[in-house]
Amino acid sequence: MSQVSSRSRLACFTFPHLALVLAWRLHPELTGEPVLVGGEGRGGRQVVVAASPAAWARGVRPAQDWARAELLCPLAVRLMVDREAVAELRREARLALASCSPLVEWGDDASAYVDLAGSDPLRPEESSRAAHCGRTLQEALGVTPSVGVGPSRFSAWAAAQLAAPGRVRSVPEGKAAEFLAPWPVTGLPIPPAVAERLLQFGLRTCGDCASITMVDLQRQFGPDGILLHRLCRGLDSARIDPWQEQPPCGVRRVLAGGVEDSESLRFGAAELARGLAQELSRLRRAAGRIRLVLRGEEESRSPSRTGRQVWWGEVAPPTPMALADDLMGPLLSLFSRAHPLTPVTVVELDAFDLVAPPVSQIGLWQGRAADREVVQRAVNRLHDRFGGGLVWRIEVRPGHPGDVPEERLVWSSS
User: Fold this and answer.
1) pLDDT for residue 371
2) To bridge 117 with a disulfide, which of 5, 17, 302, 353 should be the other Cys (CB 3.0-4.6 Å)?
3) Of 350, 133, 115, 110, whose CA–CA distance to 245 is shortest?
4) Contact 47, 63 (CB under 8 A)
5) Domain positions in the chain
6) 379-393: string of b/e by CB count within 10 Å (b at 16+)?
7) What separation in angstroms does the CA of 8 have from each of 96, 104, 209, 274, 293?
8) HSE-up of 257 (CA within 13 Å, CB side)?
């Protein structure tokens, strides 16, 4: 999968603010009631961090002065934010989305973006990939997000605003301007003064503004006019700033210099496989899915396309993998598919869908499966395949004469 695509598609996930989610967890009886969650703002002022839908209906907004919010919603339940708990929930939610894609950008604790560009053999449909990410996020948060898919940040966010919780609303390919035409200018991410002037000109929707040339908008509003033109046509940036915290099980290697071809990168596959196998052994787990991520140099050729180039791909073999030899085949297949657009400077190999390791001969010797029946079945399979003289039985001499293996152990044909 590649983040760099002329047909980039973003999924936007919107959900209640994390501070409100935590408040509902502690006080489930408050669901549906007006709730204010406050915290310290700039200058030490107490402001609204999050508000429930019932409080929003009464005019309360995030970052609003606490005293004003109390006047607008005097019957609301008032709580204080637990920032440490919010940070932990944020990390869990980020990791949940990172298990779906390495191209995740966290928003304002009430939204997140995932780049859907590329193809996924397990979920070839764009909507199924977005829905899968939404379900994964729901498991982490305990609330159901709304999902919007579009060619740009604003169009994806607008689609999420129109989607019901648990549903995916998609902007059709090449139809962003039509989709956004009824959207009110007061709902655009532009300065309030610009929105007010647009209303004075009789321009109330994106469709009204889209009928005006960019030159005329720029003449009236300066740089804000260019942004307005792009927003109304769904041409604003689709670039995201990926969150790059390492998943719970993975290895990361920073290259001494940029490597331009995937064939050269294959020489490091064995080291990556060994490193990931060690991590899996430490956790006593096997990987049901592995992901290769190639991060390139920063791109500065275009002001609208800044940030690091990223290629990534995944593979899910029929059986979970725990050993370096098991990982090598799938890893080499990922390298063969890799087509980095810029010199690669960072290589990551991550493991997901962790399960108990499958029983293997090496696992038996390492004590991972000490059950006698399991060992006997493994021995019988080896006998059937290679003959009775291949496997030897190890027994301890009566009396335990010492720690020297030659004295303490007796080897016999099984």
Assistant:
1) 54
2) 5
3) 350
4) yes
5) 18-84, 178-232, 250-355, 361-413
6) beeeeeeeeeeebee
7) 22, 14, 24, 34, 18
8) 3
- Region 194-215 average pLDDT: 93
Structure tokens at 319: 């059986």
- Tell me the pLDDT of the chain averaged across its residues: 84
Beta-carbon count within 10 A of 273 CB: 24
Backbone angles phi, psi at 163, to 5 degrees: -85, 140
* Alpha-carbon span 211 to 387, nearest angstrom: 81
Return the closest-CA partner of residue 345 out of 268, 242, 247.
268
Please say whether the structural domain 250-355 has been given the CATH code 3.30.499.10: no
Q: What is the CATH number of domain 178-232?
A: 1.10.150.20
Higher pLDDT, 402 or 350: 350
CA distance 290 to 277: 11
For residue 107, what pLDDT band results from cuts at 50, 70 and 90? Answer: confident
Q: Is residue 50 within 8 Å of 20, Cβ to Cβ?
A: yes
Pick the CATH number of 18-84 from 1.10.357.30, 3.40.1170.60, 3.40.640.10, 3.30.70.250: 3.40.1170.60
Residue 356, token pair as written in the block: 């108990």
Rg of the chain (C-alpha set): 28
Evaluated on CA atoms 184, 17, 136, 287, the torsion sign reads: positive
